[in-house]
Structure formats: C-alpha cells, structure tokens
Amino acid sequence: MVAIKAARAEAFAKSPPSDCTAVLVFGTDVGLCSERARDISKSLAGRSDPVGDVIRIEDSDIEQDPDRLAVELGTVSMFGGMQVVRVTLGRRINANLIKSLLDSGQPAAYLVIEAGNLKASDAVRKLFEATSWAAAVPCYADDERGLSGILDEMVRAAGKTIEPQARELLLSRLGADRALSRGEIEKLLLFVGDRSQVDLDDIEAVVGDASELAIDTIVSAAANGDAVTSIREFNRSVSAGDSPQVIIGALQRHFRRIHRLRAGLDEGKSFDDAARTLRPPVFFKQKASYADQCRRWSQERLQTASHRISEIAMLARTKSNMEAVLAERLLLELSTMAKQQRK
User: Which of 79, 122, 278, 287 gets the highest tally of CB atoms within 10 A of its CB?
Assistant: First the structure.
C-alpha cells in the first residue's frame, strides 16, 4: 500500500481501507500519534461483529515472552471479533521483529504500531510502505485549520461558545502537540465551569503557554531582522525540549500570514481591512508588529522566503538528525533578508 499523505491521515484514521491489516503511525507529534493509533485501533476493531478487542503489548511483555506478539497476531478470536494488537516501537519491538512478522504473511489479527519521527529511509517505515496490506500514516504538528477544528468541536461539545478574541489568542498558544492541545482546552473548559462563554480573561488565566510565546519570539525576531535574538531564543527553546520542526512550521504559518497581508496592502486595502481577512485574525496585541513586518517585506521577497521555508521543512522531515542545524540556518537567512529594507 502506498504511504498515506499527511492531509489524508485523519480521514484514514476514521475509516482505514478494508484491505489494510497493519498500520504504522509515526511523526514528530507524539500526542497526535497516540490519538491516531487509538482511533485507527477503534476503527479496525469496529469492523467485526461482535467488536474485536484491542490489546496492548509492551517491550516488557516481549522480554518475558519473546513469542508473545507473534502468537497474538496469529490467534483467531474464539468469540468472532478480530482483535487489534497495539504496540509501540522500542528496544524489543524493533525493525527486525516487525520484519519477521510481516514477512510471515498477513496476520489473523490487526496490528497498529506507534513510533516517533521516522526518516523515509527507516527500515520499518519502508517495510510498511512496501507491503500491500499495510500502511504508514504520518503525524506532524497541527496547522491552524486542524487546531480550529479541534477547538470548535470541544467547545461545542461542552455546550459553550468562545469570544472571537479569546479564540484567536487560544489558537496562538496551541499546536506543538495534539495531546497537549486537547489537555489545555479541557483545562480551560473546566476553569470556565457553568458559564456559557469563554472570554479573553479565561485564556490569560489558564493557558499561559510559555513554549508558544518563546516560539513567537523566535519567529518575530527573524521576520524583523534580529538574528541575535532569534538564534538565542531558538537555542533556548530547543534545549527546553521544543522540536525544531515545530519552529519551522511556525515560521511557515507566520510568513504565509504576512504574505497575505502584504498582498492586501498592495491591492489598496488598509492594514485593518487586510488583517480582518486572516483566519484566525491578527491578535490586537500583535498588530503593530505585523504592520512593521509588512512595511519591511515586499511580496517578491516574501515569495522567496516562503519557498525557502518550504524547502527546509521538507529537508527537516527527511533528515531529522539535521533538523536543528537546518532550522538555525533558516533563521539566519530570514533575518538577513529582513534587513534588506523595501525601497
């Protein structure tokens, strides 16, 4: 089966193809990997009547019983439902073990594997992409559209509404990890309690995401030509555990927004009119910074910058061992371009 594109991953998780028996879920967003693996397991188990069981097998289980995974995958359920075996790639559940299992042919049970960020050359990923009855599903950090959908779904399910400015601020503080994003929204809804609407004060009180604020500083400094601040904050952010790929994604979203604003201004719109067309809209505390960046960047150089960011984003995904170096180089390039004042 061919590799699943990131844009199709969510639809795949809800309804895997009928001929798919084994699924590898991988990527930089650990929370999203776990969520997609859970959804895929549920979808696969639901194919049977009665619904199949989902069982977890850990590395520790393999240490005690090396044949446990092979036995479970070869077992036909006594009660009719086809079971799902869910595992996480690790020291014992590794490429050699997975290859031996898949080389044995299509199993009697479904197999769902979670993994971290795997390069295109990784043995397990290549194996799943080359096996006709298997699939490899990528999970990368949520974009604005994906975050908006999650937020709206959760707020609606809680029977509440959210003020536009509060929604805008909340979206700006989410996205590094799907599980963390859901956790922050759940925490916020609990804080609001019986009130029917989430407001700006609620966001400020509950969702003070230092990581996202640090990333915003990195991105804004690069767009303003301040390489020293951008690189310093980048090194701090990575040392604190933030993914360089998340920062590259933030750069991509930010420059896309600046490009749209610049295009609106060049069409004769006022800054406020152009800003209102963005989704989510420009947060009122960021308007002055956005306006300055629009004056600094021409459409032509924004196109060049966007193209370069896309190139680095692709390289970082395929060469994860180089992602920090690539991101740092990109920040330097963008900072240099920002200093070339528009004439």
Answer: 122
Structure-token pair, residue 229: 């601040």
Full-model pTM: 0.51
For the chain, the domains span 6-138, 144-206, 211-338
Average pLDDT over residues 208-237: 81
**φ and ψ at residue 87, rounded to 5 degrees:** -135, 170
* 162-171 confidence digits (pLDDT tens): 998 888 888 8
The fold adopted by the segment(s) 211-338 is Zinc Finger, Delta Prime; domain 3 (1.20.272)
- Answer whether 215's CB lies under 8 Å from 68's CB: no
Q: Which amino acid is at 255?
A: F
Residue pLDDT, tens place only, 190-208: 999 999 999 988 888 777 5
C-alpha angle with apex 29: 11 to 308, nearest 5 degrees? 95
Residue 74 has φ and ψ, to the nearest 5°, of -95, 0
Could you tell me the sign of the dihedral formed by the alpha carbons of 68, 72, 78, 83, in that order?
A: positive
Q: What is the dihedral of CA 191, 281, 220, 172, to 10 degrees?
A: 20
